[in-house]
């Protein structure tokens, strides 16, 4: 069997794995990206992605931004708590940036990245499912199947961007998991009010509802209890819109139409640590978060960006990639950002679903206090946009 050798092998060609492959390629580091599925025409994932201004800057540097067919700016975020007083409005001016972020379609981003990899001839193999990983102090050896054939490849640095499936094979990496018993229902929605760049995050006792500006309508991410998710997904359109209106309220007038609905089970899953011998984890493989406040991909993109930086530094200083010093530097640099992202989304996902009136009052007060203190608003907004280092 022919065994290929690469400086870096990335397993998983989701948006984070592709971002890393493009970023390494642009800096002259040879890598191989293996993706189990990966045919862009077949990727129909309907989820919207709210990208922070910081992610926009990274995607621009990677040459992906200009290939996105639909980008909707978020100029203001309106945060409220259903049936309780208190609300906060965050504007781009509060954060000192031209816009708070942008909404794009996951499948558009996927195709734009794939196109960029194709243009630059990034080494990318689709339909390649990694099955086995063997690691020693000098290298990682992987086995994968492609078109019915068993293949092998060897690398000095293995990066897992596979959403968290393979790391269980690696000694020393453990996952902590919390199931929310919730699903996110996503759909494109039209309302009688026209969208003007305002994103809504409305907390309810069952979970948050996000309505993000998208094209000439809104992209809905509605968190519902696991027990009612199937029933909500199978409602006819008008009953679905009536229920959504009931939960969200009147701010957007009448809910006029809905596109196809899809559901995603929600879980918090994070690896500890995110590195092992000759191995680093990025994106959902390192941390899978609740979608409230749209942090997951933004965080994963910063993982890919920082890892590229460490790989380049390590290659320049020692001409060796994947040494423990390099891996530790990557893990240390990402620690605060990923801990903050986890704490932020996990707290938001849980705190507002309480039935305790006192805690609900406290949450409402928190939103009002945040609204009246511009320096704190700026602090929160900049951390949502640029990560824990603001
Ligand atoms: C409803 C919803 C809304 C969201 N909204 C936002 C948002 O607004 N903003 C935001 O920043 N984030 C958001 N997220 C989170 C975001 O979607 C994820 O963080 C992001 O897609 C993770 O990308 P990834 O590349 O790390 O992993 P994945 O997308 O999970 O990709 C992993 C890839 O690895 C491949 N793979 C798996 N196993 C193997 C194997 N053995 N061999 C080879 N390949 C393999 C898979 O085929 C897949 O392509 C949302 C999530 C949900 C569920």
Mean pLDDT, to the nearest integer, reads: 91
Q: What ligands can be seen in this structure?
A: flavin-adenine dinucleotide
Distance separating the two termini:
49 Å
**CATH class categorisation of the domain at 3-44 and 106-176 and 268-386:** Alpha Beta
Q: Pick out the low-confidence regions.
A: none
Output the structural class.
alpha+beta
The count of β-strands is 20
CATH topology of the domain at 3-44 and 106-176 and 268-386: FAD/NAD(P)-binding domain
Number of helical segments with 4 or more residues: 10
Shape: globular
How would you sum up the major sheet?
9 strands, mixed
- Helices and strands, in order, run as EHEEHEEEHEHEEEEEEEEHHEEEEEHHHH
CATH-derived architecture of the domain at 3-44 and 106-176 and 268-386: 3-Layer(bba) Sandwich
The share of residues in extended strands comes to: 25-35%
Domain FAD-binding: 6-334
Family: Belongs to the UbiH/COQ6 family.
Pathway: Cofactor biosynthesis; ubiquinone biosynthesis
GO molecular function: FAD binding; monooxygenase activity; oxidoreductase activity, acting on paired donors, with incorporation or reduction of molecular oxygen
